[in-house]
Description:
By secondary structure, this protein is mainly α. It has helices at about 1-20, 20-45, 60-75, 80-90, 95, 105-135, 145-170, 180-190, 205-210, 220-225, 230-260.
Amino acid sequence: MRQAAKYAxxxxxxxxxxxxxxxxxxxxxxxxxxxxxxxxxxxxxxxQGTDSIGGFDVRQTMxxxxxxxxxxxxxxxxxxxxxxSDEIRNGxxxxxxxxPISYFLYRFTIYLSARLVSGLLILVPLALAxxxxxxxxxxxxxxxxxxxxxxxxxxxxLIQFSIAYCFGLLTFWFLEIxxxxxxxxxxxxxxxxxLFPLDLMPGPIFKIAQWxxxxxxxxxxAAILTGRIGPELAAQGLLIQSAxxxxxxxxxxxxxxxxxxxHTAVGG
Length: 268
C-alpha cells in the first residue's frame, strides 16, 4: 500500500510538470492535423480510379491513420529516452540508488502522466476537426475488438516505454545515443505502420514483420480497432506482444545491472 502511494505521488508530480507544457502538447496536436491533411491528399490520390486497396476502402484507410495519431499521443514514448540519458549523464540518477524506489517504475509512472496529458489534449483539435473528419471515420461494430484493444494498448505502451528505457540506459556505455534513437525511429516508421498499413506489404515480408516488436507498437492496436485483422490474428498477436514485453523487461534489467557496474556516482 505504501509502495502504491509512493508512485501515486510520483504520478501527480509528473502530471503537474507536464501540465506546464500543455500548450506545447496542444500545438503539437494541432500541427498533427497538417500531417493528417497530407495523408488525406496522398491516399486520396492513391484511391483515384479504385474503390479499395488491400481490401479496404478510402474511409477505412483514413480511419486507420486517424487512429494512429490518437495512439501516438496516448502511448508513444516521445522523449523518455533522452530524459533517462540526461539523468544518467548528469548524475541525477544517483538519488535513486540510495532510495527504496525502482527507477524503472519511477520513469514508467512519469511516462504515464505525460501520455495522459498529451493524449487528452490531442482530442481537442480532433474534436474541432470532427465535422470535417466524420465522413471518413468508420469503426467496426464487433464488441470483441474493443475488448482486445485494451490489453493490446497496455502492452503496446509497455513496449514503447521499454524500448525508450533501453536506449536511455545505453548512456552507461555511450556518451551520445542519438544515433541509436534515430535508427530505431526510422525502422519503426516503416515496420510500425506509420507510413502505410503493414497488411499492404508483400505476404512474406508481412509475416516477418509480425514477429518483430515494431509491429506491436502502433500497427497492432490500430489494426484491431479499425478491423484490419481478425480474431485469430489478434489472439496470436497478443501472445507475441506479451512475449516481447517480457523480453524487454529482462533486457532492461540486465542493462541496468551491468550499467551500474560501470557507473561512477558523481553529481546529482
